[in-house]
Amino acid sequence: MLVKSASFVKSSSKLAECPANSVWEFAFIGRSNVGKSSLINMLTGRKSLAKTSNTPGKTQLINHFLINENWLLVDLPGYGFAKVAKKVRNKFDHMIHNYLAKRESLACTFVLLDIRHEPQHKDLAFMELLGEKQIPFCMVFTKADKLSDKKLSTNIENYKNKMLKNWAYLPEIFVTSSAKKTGRAEILSYVGQVIDDIGEPKFTNQ
Ligand code: GTP
Ligand code: MG
Fold this sequence. Notes:
Elements: E1 6-12, E2 25-30, H1 36-44, E3 62-67, E4 71-75, H2 86-102, E5 106-114, H3 121-132, E6 137-142, H4 149-163, E7 173-175, H5 184-198
Parallel strand pairs: 2-4, 2-5, 5-6, 6-7
Antiparallel strand pairs: 1-3, 3-4
Bound molecules: guanosine-5'-triphosphate and magnesium ion.
């Protein structure tokens, strides 16, 4: 898929404020600082469409971007961010869970995982939750450029093996680097394929 246009639509602090359900949308989620906003900029080919930062917790709202006038890309705040007050964290977690569970136009969620690290309890638990709620998701390993090819393969294998302890089969997996544009064609082509497979949206809540 070619990205011909990409524009910011809206930032929402809760599900009720999100744009009306009109086209399919794809959400990007993961721990704070995992590289969600960077990946969105890499995919859309727009340097600063989504705001990136060295400071974790930059994205605090549900941000919608319209791509090619026919699908929405969603930048979500990081979950389980340790450095904010518990009350704020709970508010974030509630907002994210409510969005994921109830957003009718959500076609697929991309769960971002920093491939430099061992599988983290919070990420595994988050994917378990998506599984329980039957929310379709893919795994996206980020920051692949920060590892040697050998270490990258080892970490991916370790992650898959860890997942297979709890899952009968693995979801779609993408290996990415926003710095090197790795994984861009694969993710965009997957989005196109999902849109083709699920067909024209007919939403009950507009
Ligand atoms: P929050 O909005 O705080 O939840 O973070 P985020 O997940 O949106 O992360 P963001 O894209 O802001 O990136 C965090 C930091 O990681 C920034 O300093 C990025 O430049 C860096 N980064 C993100 N992706 C990559 C990558 O693929 N390679 C490298 N080398 N650095 C990356
Ligand atoms: Mg962000």
